[in-house]
């Protein structure tokens, strides 16, 4: 199927936007797949990676043009831009962890070669009892931490993800060393999109124009927009704005910066301009978003859990 005909999903089985200020999203396979009659049609993500862990049941996996049935226990790696689809058996249990591009790039910097496993689409049967138990434990800890906000949440989630990637790299090591395959070569348009996303990650707070990005990629801004719309389903400017919005949400929730300080740090000339930008994309002004998030998280706090503190304009930081 040509790339231009493959739908681009924003999340597992959905076309809606990334729903959380966290850099990862975790949910059980049944809670979303049941809504789709256990079938997620073939699609791809421009900037999201998946790790699926099946503890029970099975799946007919479509991955980069191939189709094969697998039984649990199983760990599936789906890199960004890989075409994939799932038809789960109704007794399937497990979780899907979705990683945003900024998180993946940070993991690649810290884990070097071991993070290369995230670039290889693969299904890994969990045949060794020790590895099966260790991976199941890590997935369970990630799910528990994701669902129950607590101080140090971001650091613990990233530490757990580092451990999970190391375990996944160990799973992949025998096949990799035996075959020594080079990572799948991307065509020129995919390479340009990935390079653009890398530039966004390095320079989003400076808010350079699309022409600036295109010049550094050696293509025209019109060509950059065309390939972004073709492969990511959004314009080049929309991709830049989505990264700015994600960072704004994270700073509003996880720091005690004022709205003006967040605006300044993200390259907005005036807080009023930032407020209009944020309201247009998030549906609420920054202060309302911050207050609602605080009310939501405080409502989920368990007995004995330390609550975030609020500063003068309602912002919070982890303590």
TrEMBL record:
Alphabetical keyword list: DNA-binding, Transcription, Transcription regulation
Superkingdom of the source species: Bacteria
SUPFAM superfamilies reported in the protein's UniProt record: Homeodomain-like, Regulatory protein AraC
Record field: compositional bias (Basic and acidic residues): 310-319
Region Disordered, residue ranges: 287-319
Any single Pfam family the record assigns to this protein: HTH_18
Domain HTH araC/xylS-type residue range list: 194-292
Gene3D superfamilies (UniProt xref): Homeodomain-like
Keyword DNA-binding part of the UniProt annotation: yes
Name of the protein described by the UniProt record: Transcriptional regulator
UniProt organism field: Halomonas halophila
